[in-house]
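Margin note from the TA: students keep mixing up input and output lines. Inputs are the sequences; the output is the structure of the whole complex. Example:
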Amino acid sequence: MGKYIIKKLIRLIITLIVTSFVIFLIFELVPGDPVLDKLGTRATPELVEALRIQYGLNEPFILRYFKFLGGIFTLNFGTSYTYGIPVATLLKEKIVINFFLSVMALFFVVVISFPLGIYVAKHTGGLSDKIISPLNQASMSVPSFVLGLLITFFFGIVLRWFKPGGYVSYNANFGQFLYFLIFPAFALAIPKIAMCIRLLKGNILEEATKDYALTAYARGNNTTGLLYRHVLKNAIMPTITFIGMIAADMICSGIVIEQVFSIPGLGQILISSISTRDFPVVEAEVMMIALFIMLISFITDIIHVCLDPRVRI
Amino acid sequence: MLTVKDLKIEFFDHDLPEVAVKDVDFTIKDGEILGIVGESGSGKSMTAMAIAGLLNRKDLTKSGTIDLDGTDILNSPRSKIRQIQGNEIGFVFQDPLNSMNPVLKVGAQVEEAMRIRKKELGLTKEDMKNRALEVMKSVGLDDAERIYESYPHQISGGQRQRAMIAAALVLKPKLLICDEPTTALDVTVQKRIIDVLKELNEKTGTSILFISHDLSVIKALCDRVVVMKDGVVVEEGNVREIFENPTKEYTKQLIF
């Protein structure tokens, strides 16, 4: 097991390096010059040259890439062209916000979809199934940001459970910060919950028709014993893989959701820094998203090994 | 011990009733090995499933009786059938790989019939393990301790089928039903599994219902044989007599 984790970690670092190169290369190739963008109409050849030297853009590509790569491991991404402050300082708070938002949404997905999926599978064709299935279909087809608007309207304006746009920084009050995030997290989670319920239900029903389930019946198991002891462990694995993919998607969907709820997260700064060609910020941010996704897939791999003895380690 | 009378099973395919099995009568005596032989679609597996109480699907209608020492398996509620399954009737399926749960250790699957009745039987974890190892050794798994801790994919096909037989025998059932238990195995392993079943029958007097499409296997193992075709019994009798003197055209075709 330990060996497997180390092997996976090494692979993760290699992926990280390859990804960092691709990201750096892309922003090297996209049209637009950060220096000209910043100077605008004030640009003279001397000023441009001076700023290039200040940003280190006069150095060769490979050298700048290695600086960037080193920066990833030391969390030093250089200075923002636009704001003039270190990128790490600029992004720190925003990453914390998006991290909590994604983790909370994932938490909702897991604690809601697993019990409901199992329940619906157990009572297929029953009343609960007849209610939940169409509801599922509907929530799957509504995008998160629409749900965000509905939640803001219903819980924010009608019920007054939270103040729309009243984001509280986690430095100011951590409890209130988490409370505020509950609503956008739900907006993020609802479509994914619906997908997970459907996937889990389908997998449980499929596993229950397999030969080993019949064998378990032939030993005198009842439906509950069959479900929890035999079927669930097999049926849950595709759902875990799927949740891994959802986690990756959470960060990106979160960028839209935070706009709906006026949360100063990664999204706003990502968009503004792309339009101003503030490459250190964009690169750091994209790198962070990539890292998060890699970590999630690393965790799902580990869970798979724990659950499925057939996975070779 | 087991009497099947007027067994009829129909299933509904797009609302049209289709007869899978009809007018099936036979008995299994204590300590007897009865074979059912027939080609695919002859209803032999359906009959076996009915005896094991595994036909509680809603798209089926069943009539007749299956009497196991006074209990009508066909018409009893599921709660009653559950007490018989794994306890008085053991079932071995065709494909040992698919009929084992891939994520549970072999040992856990062998002792499952005990675990389900742990409270009634008053068994501890150790009792169950000891019994599981004992029965695994009795079916020729000499390496029982290792196999107990292995997962199904880590052992060979022959070992898997032995483990499945052990799992079916763990509570010393009166009747062991084997539904083509050797079909998915290669010939040498097949022979060893047959030997295990023969030895079991001789030593413990467990009755065996053996289903196969392979007459040579039936000939090697069974005392009596029931020949089925298209859901009905074509011929029934002593294995030797039927082989030497088949009266029905279909049986002759099967033999030659």
